[in-house]
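Last lecture ended with a question: if I hand you only a sequence, what can you say about the shape of the protein? Today we answer it with a concrete record. The protein is ATP-binding cassette, subfamily B, MsbA. Below, first the input exactly as provided, then the predicted structure, then a couple of comments.
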Amino acid sequence: MNYFKKILRFAKPYKIYAVLNIISNIFYALFSTLAMISLFPMLNVLFKQTEKIYTKPQWNGITDLKDYVTNSLNFYITEQSQYRDSGEVLMIMVGLIITMFLLKNLFNYLAMYFITFLRNGVLKDLRNELYDKTVELPISYYSEKRKGDTIARITSDVLEIQHSFLSVLELIVREPLTIIFTIIAMLAISPKLTLFVFLFLPLSGFLISLIGKSLKRKSDKVQNEQGYFLSILEETLGGLRVIKAFNSETVFAKKFQASTKRFFNFSNSLLNRQNLASPTSEFFGIAAIGVILWYGGQMVLVDKTLEAELFITYMALSYQILTPAKAISKASYGVKKGNAAAERVLEILETENPISEIENPIHQEAFNTAVNINNISFKYEDDYVLKNFNLTVEKGKTVALVGQSGSGKSTIANLVTRFYDVNKGDISIDGNNIKDLSKKSLRGLLGLVTQDSILFNDTVKNNIGLGKENATDDEIIEAAKIANAHDFIMDLPNGYNTNIGDSGNKLSGGQKQRLSISRAVLKNPPIMILDEATSALDTESERLVQDALEKMMKNRTSIVIAHRLSTIQNADTIVVLQKGEIVEQGTHTELLKRNGTYKKLVQMQTLTS
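The predicted structure:
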């Protein structure tokens, strides 16, 4: 029930709809009971059992409710019979029944109308908060999670919450009130018979509850498996070229089919258990009605303590309890099933973000002096990838980081942008620790161009425009020109309005990279971080991209992580890393003269090029 309460907090903005739904449900439950009670006067007229009463009955308190209602109806029928024949009186009674059922269904519709806004509002806000949390959580969170599992939680798990938890909101007032009003009417007709009926309810309720105990565990398995096969699907779509090139379709098909087979088995087990709810509750309900027919029949035929018309009305009322009882039984299974979905959704929402801001962070708008990396150490898991690392990048200077794969170059980019936090030491900009800056202002000072060009399934214009909100067309074109991208963009079918496909797959590697650079140019940040921005390109594309990078880095502070050493020869400082530590530092010329690690790296690349 804890999960249910946590999900219900999303209903607060829609409480007016909840209030209107409750009011409508109260009237629904009332008219639902009155619709059944209205059968009694019609049966009286039909069987000509109306007792002639010529004096209007007096109210003598709640204990006299049954006699008061019966006498009032008889008085009304007696009065009408003086002016109308039996057929007309019967029509009035039938009209009364139709009116009761009309009002019942009208309020039923209104209750569902209002709850629709509440349910869909909760669904919208829950998905929005999940998306915001997904974006807010650090990159490290997703290195341990499957993307497909996250997608499953935002899609199918949220839908499961709607179908299970939120469907309970429809029943939380309506069905219990219908049962309460009906029981009051049944007690008014015959307390003895009602007491007899309720001896059987705890027994049937206990037997029904036994079925639902394992639903949460089974539902959890279904949802986990769904997340797994969505992950396989996501990986398949992302790596389709490799799968086809290595004839691995069968391998991935077997993985997917094994997952869907497990999903098939788990789903069958879950649904078969859930499907027991309705027939089981109906069987026990009909069994209870059978008992009422026997015991009530004795009261009518043998003891003569209950009128036949009242007994038929009583039977109609007792059958009316079946529908809400079944709905409550089904809803209780829904809550158990929804528990697993809510747990998975709340796991994301309640995950603490380790990359947090201080209470009143500094909002730094400009960069004036230097970026200082002060004696930092960092590890992703057990082993440190950076140890006691120190570096100063002064304003207007270009510092290049070189070294073999795994030496810690890209880690520097992840730490300066605060995708990860350092374990020891600190990083500061103009003397302000980046942990004291707001994340928005920190990243506003930084531009990032990565080895993998991350583009989106949108137009060229919108991909470049991510660099600056509300950028004009002229600003976008100017940024593209600086990045040597304007000419190839104009050759595209719709120019800047051409859709570039999923991840920009309609473009070549060099074109994608130049769009990424255009985006960074448009943002125009004072500090630029280039993470192996040319390493995946052919020679011609590299020349165009390198030219674009040099234009972009003019009069700008840059941290360049380089794989191809030919691209960083003009850097003000080249830092050579080995196993997370600085082994050499200087200009290109100075490092060659030292005849050390840097010169060996240059010679190796010269031999392999």
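Comments.
1. The radius of gyration is 37 Å.
2. The chain is about 60% helix and 10% strand.
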